[in-house]
Amino acid sequence: MFNKLKQVKDLRNQAKTMQDALSNESVTLDKGGITLSMDGNMKITSLKIEDDVKKEKIEKIVPDLANDATKKIQKIMAQKMQEMGGLQGLF
């Protein structure tokens, strides 16, 4: 039983280390007068829209930018996990 508790604690520590490492990462994407930035914890940190961008264009581009930024952050997360040795000792 204590072995399982230790594994849970180790997992929590690994997750915290990963979250700290990812908080320093970010991606910024630009498309059609709209710029979106996302941090490594997949939170949008900035959204800039030029004055002349029409509403219809915003409604189409913002979801695309958010999805693309999420994919890039997920790739960075996978790379960081490999660098940190993955989730060792869990299974």
Keywords:
91 residues, alpha+beta, Ybab, Chain: A, 3 strands
How would you portray this structure in words?
With about 90 residues, the chain is α+β, with helices and mostly antiparallel strands. It has a domain at about 25-75: Nucleoid-associated protein YbaB-like domain (Ybab, Chain: A, 2-Layer Sandwich), CATH 3.30.1310. It is built from 2 helices and 3 strands, in the order αβββα. The protein has helices at about 1-25, 55-85, and strands at about 25-30, 35-40, 45-50. The protein has a 3-stranded antiparallel sheet with strand order 1-2-3, with helices on one face.
Annotated CATH homologous superfamily of one domain: Nucleoid-associated protein YbaB-like domain
- Uncertain stretches: none
What's the number of helices? 2
Termini separation (Å)?
A: 15 Å
Write down how many β-strands occur, each being a DSSP E stretch of 2 or more residues. 3
Rounded to the nearest angstrom, the radius of gyration is 18 Å
Please identify, by name, the CATH architecture of one domain. 2-Layer Sandwich
CATH class of one domain: Alpha Beta
What is the N-to-C succession of helices and strands? HEEEH
Q: Which strand-content bin applies to the residues?
A: 15-25%
**Biggest sheet descriptor:** 3 strands, antiparallel
Q: What proportion of the residues is helical, as a percent range?
A: 55-70%
Instruction: Give the neighbour order of strands across the main sheet.
Output: 1-2-3
Q: What's the helix and strand layout?
A:
Blueprint: H1 2-23, E1 26-31, E2 34-39, E3 44-49, H2 55-83
Antiparallel strand pairs: 1-2, 2-3
